[in-house]
Amino acid sequence: MKILAIIPARSGSKGVKDKNIYPINGKPLLTYAIETAKQCPEVTDIFISTDSPVYEAIAKEAGARSLGLRPSTLSSDIAKTADVLIDLITSLQHRGYNYDLVLLLQPTSPVRKPSDITNMLQILHTNQNASGVVSVSRLIEPHPYKLKIISPEGYLLSFLDNTSSELPRQLLPPIYKLNGAVYIVKVEYLLSTGNLINSNTLPYEMEEGVNIDSIDDIELLTYFLQTHKIRL
Q1: Pairing relationship of beta strands 27-28 and 23-24 according to DSSP bridges
Q2: Helix ranges, 9-167 (H)
Q3: Which InterPro entries match (predicted)?
Q4: Within 13 A of 169's CA, how many CA atoms are on the CB side?
Q5: CA 4, CA 72: separation in Å to the nearest integer?
Q6: How far apart (Å, rounded) are the C-alpha atoms in residues 56 and 48?
Q7: pTM surpassing 0.85?
Q8: Is residue 41 predicted with pLDDT exceeding 90?
Q9: Which residues, at least 6 apart from 53, have a Cβ–Cβ distance to it below 8 Å?
Q10: Distance between CA 109 and CA 25 in Å, rounded?
Q11: What CATH code is carried by the domain that includes residue 202?
Q12: Is residue 14 pLDDT above 80, yes or no?
């Protein structure tokens, strides 16, 4: 079983300048993702996908490989992560490299352990019909049952049909969200559909982490690290 770890790191972020290489404890976020992949014995190769020569240099120093900078068409705000992965996978295939699984590690979702990846691979191994396994976290608030929309006539309506916001919290069904930490997808499925997840994707539940999208997120992550609630 050959596993390709890909760390996508586009430059030009708006919420936090260069958030993919923002230093946490003196180390770029990008480096944490690469180090996690390096600590997984199951991973065959680790590649960076970036549009920045600076990011590329940081990644190579941390132990990742590179095929050069990604095309500008895959470096915009609206570029899909799946398309970035497909571009790199097909480029590697043209060079004679073939993989069974792709492991996506986003630098801005750094709260994960190598053991999480190992556990996810074991889950996927025991469910051969699955297309992949993705990390999720329990969503407590706001619960979707409590969300509302305003109708064209000005009335307050449930966002989801046939749901009630008046249910006690204990009776609300458990809801999960993608936490962005780890995606493992079968290469064959990704290349044939262009998607990362579908109805055959398995979940792997993790505790809530921190996704870096604003300065507030960085301050929250720093606080959690200082109080030892999170370790990287």
Answers
A1: antiparallel
A2: 29-38, 53-62, 81-94, 114-125
A3: CMP-NeuNAc_synthase, Cytidylyl_trans, Nucleotide-diphossugar_trans
A4: 4
A5: 23
A6: 7
A7: yes
A8: yes
A9: 69
A10: 15
A11: 3.90.550.10
A12: no
